[in-house]
Amino acid sequence: MQVEIVITLRESILDPKGKASHHALENLGFKDITGVRIGKFIQLDVDTNDPDQARRAAEQACEKLLANMVMEDYEIRLPDNV
User: Fold this and answer.
1) Exposed site from 7, 45, 55, 71, fewest CB < 10 Å?
2) DSSP letter at 36?
3) Are 71 and 12 contacting, i.e. CB atoms less than 8 angstroms apart?
4) Domain 2-77, architecture per CATH
5) CA distances from 52 to 3, 48, 76 (A)
């Protein structure tokens, strides 16, 4: 089963990449864009058909390696058809 993970910096954490990208977009004429936050997108292939087991595996992977639990939040997305 494929699991998608979106990792973002917590709102209280400054995002220098996002700020630089926002500034560059403004310079390119994108005046209606008021903010940019940069994160990570990860796809995991988990060897199971059980959505609960896939979610648990993804949560453990985030907490042990993929996400910095002090600075980042994560969202786990499972396929719509489960």
Assistant:
1) 45
2) -
3) no
4) 2-Layer Sandwich (3.30)
5) 11, 9, 11
CA–CA distance, 50 with 24 (Å, rounded to integer): 44
CB 15 within 8 A of CB 82: no
**Cα Rg of the chain (Å, integer):** 16
Per-residue pLDDT of the chain (82 residues; tens, 9 = 90+): 999 999 999 999 999 999 999 999 999 999 999 999 999 999 999 999 999 999 999 999 999 999 999 999 999 999 886 5
Question: What pTM did the predictor assign?
Answer: 0.87
Q: 59: which DSSP letter?
A: H
Position 20, amino acid: A
